[in-house]
Design a protein that fits this description.
Layout: E1 2-7, H1 10-20, E2 26-31, E3 36-38, E4 43-45, H2 48-55, E5 60-61, H3 69-76, E6 82-86, H4 94-97, E7 104-108, E8 116-117, H5 120-127, E9 131-138, E10 148-155, H6 162-186, E11 201-202, H7 218-227, E12 234-238, E13 241-251, E14 263-266, E15 271-274, E16 279-286, E17 293-294, H8 295-301
Parallel strand pairs: 1-2, 1-6, 2-5, 6-7, 8-11
Antiparallel strand pairs: 3-4, 7-9, 9-10, 12-13, 13-16, 14-15, 15-16, 16-17
Helix pairs in contact: 1-2, 1-6, 5-7
C-alpha cells in the first residue's frame, strides 16, 4: 500500500521509524508542521519527523494548513491508500480525511474516549491516573472521536514522568500501528464506536500552567512537575529570580504554623517546601544562567543561596516578570 505519514514531534518520528523499518508498504510522502524558531537564539529548527524523513529520502511537505483546495490537490496527487497521523498538530478537514482509499488513522496516546485532545500524557499523570495506553482510531471530523481499531493499556508508575510514559506508549504504539495497517489492508479491522459519555478532554499545555501554585496539595505539584519534564518546565520565584524545578517528590510532612511556599528545611540533597497540604522535597532545579543541577551541587557551590524561612513567590507574582 501507499502510505502518507503526518506528524511533528519525537513521538511521531518514532512511529515513522516503525513504518520505515517495514518493507511491505511504500511511504510516498511525509507531512509535518513548518520549521519553527526556538531557543534563546531563535534558531530555525526542523521537526524530528522532517529530519528522519529527509534522512530516508522521503518527500516532505510542510503546509501551514490543509484547508486550501491547492494543498488538498497536492495531497491527492500522491494517490495514497492510507494516511497515518501521530501528533501532527494541524486539523484535517473532512475533504482530506476522505482522500485516501482507506481513510486516515491516528495514533493517540490514551485509552479513548478518555483524554481526547492535545496533551493526554501530561493530563493523565497530573490527574493521578493509574493507567494509560494507546488507541489506534479511524479519524473522523470530531476531535479524537473516530471509531477505535485497536487499543492496549499500560500502567502509570508512581514516579512516572512525561518522558518515561511517552517512551512506554511509543513501544506499544509502534506494534499496534503495524497491526492496524495489516487489518485494514486485509479487510479484517474491527471498528468500535467510542462512548461519548465516558470522554474527557486533555487540553493543550500552556506555559503559565508551569508556574507552581504552592497552595495546591504537594501530590498535585509533584505530579505536575513529573508530567511537564519535556514540555513546559515547572517554575517558581525566589525574590526576583525565576527557578525551574526539575525533580521533586511529595511527602506528608506538614507544619501548620508555616507559610505556604516557605522553605522549612534544607538537607544535604533536598529542600523541604510547605504546600497547601503536605510538603514538596526539591531535589533538582535550575537557577538563572545555569543548567539544571542537584540541590547538593548548588549548595556546594553557593551554600547561602537558600535559607530556612525563604518563601517562594505566589502565582500572582508571575505577572511582574
Amino acid at each position: 500500500m501507499k502510505i502518507i505519514f503526518a506528524g511533528t514531534p519525537q513521538f511521531a518520528a518514532d512511529h515513522l521509524a516503525a513504518l520505515l523499518n517495514q518493507t511491505e508498504h511504500e511511504l510516498v510522502a511525509v507531512y509535518t508542521q513548518p520549521d519553527r524558531r526556538s531557543g534563546r537564539g531563535k534558531k530555525t529548527l526542523a521537526s524530528p519527523v522532517k529530519i528522519l524523513a529527509q534522512k530516508n529520502h522521503i518527500p516532505v511537505m510542510q503546509p501551514a494548513s490543509l484547508k486550501s483546495v491547492e494543498q488538498q490537490a497536492e495531497l491527492k496527487s500522491f494517490h495514497a491508500d492510507l494516511m497515518v497521523v501521530a501528533a501532527y498538530g494541524l486539523i484535517l478537514p473532512q475533504a482530506v480525511l476522505d482522500l485516501p482509499r482507506l481513510g486516515c488513522i491516528n495514533i493517540h496516546a490514551s485509552l479513548l474516549p478518555h483524554w481526547r485532545g492535545a496533551a493526554p500524557v501530561e493530563r493523565a499523570i497530573i490527574a493521578g491516573d493509574k493507567e494509560s495506553g494507546i488507541t489506534i482510531m479511524q479519524m473522523a471530523a470530531g476531535l479524537d472521536t473516530g471509531d477505535m481499531l485497536l487499543k492496549k493499556p499500560c500502567s502509570i508508575d508512581p514516579l512516572e514522568t512525561g518522558d518515561s510514559l511517552r517512551k512506554k506508549l511509543t513501544r506499544i504504539g509502534q506494534k499496534l500501528l503495524l497491526q492496524a495497517i495489516v487489518a485494514l489492508k486485509d479487510g479484517t479491522a474491527l471498528h468500535t464506536p467510542q462512548d461519548d459519555n465516558e470522554s474527557s478532554y486533555a487540553k493543550k499545555i500552556e506555559k503559565p500552567e508551569g508556574c507552581i501554585d504552592w497552595q495546591n496539595n504537594a501530590d498535585v505539584i509533584d505530579r505536575t512537575i513529573r508530567a511537564f519534564t519535556s514540555t513546559t518546565a515547572c517554575f517558581t520565584f525566589l525574590q526576583d529570580q525565576r527557578l525551574r524545578i526539575t525533580a521533586a517528590q511529595a511527602c506528608e510532612d506538614h507544619h501548620a504554623d508555616t507559610d505556604i511556599g516557605q522553605i522549612v528545611a534544607i538537607h544535604n540533597d533536598y529542600l523541604s517546601v510547605q504546600c497547601g497540604t503536605g510538603q514538596l522535597r526539591i531535589y533538582e532545579l535550575q537557577i538563572p544562567g545555569s543548567k539544571s543541577m542537584s540541590v547538593s551541587a548548588l549548595l556546594n557551590g553557593r551554600s547561602n543561596f537558600f535559607s530556612v524561612g525563604d518563601c517562594f513567590n505566589p502565582v500572582a507574582s508571575v505577572t511582574n516578570h
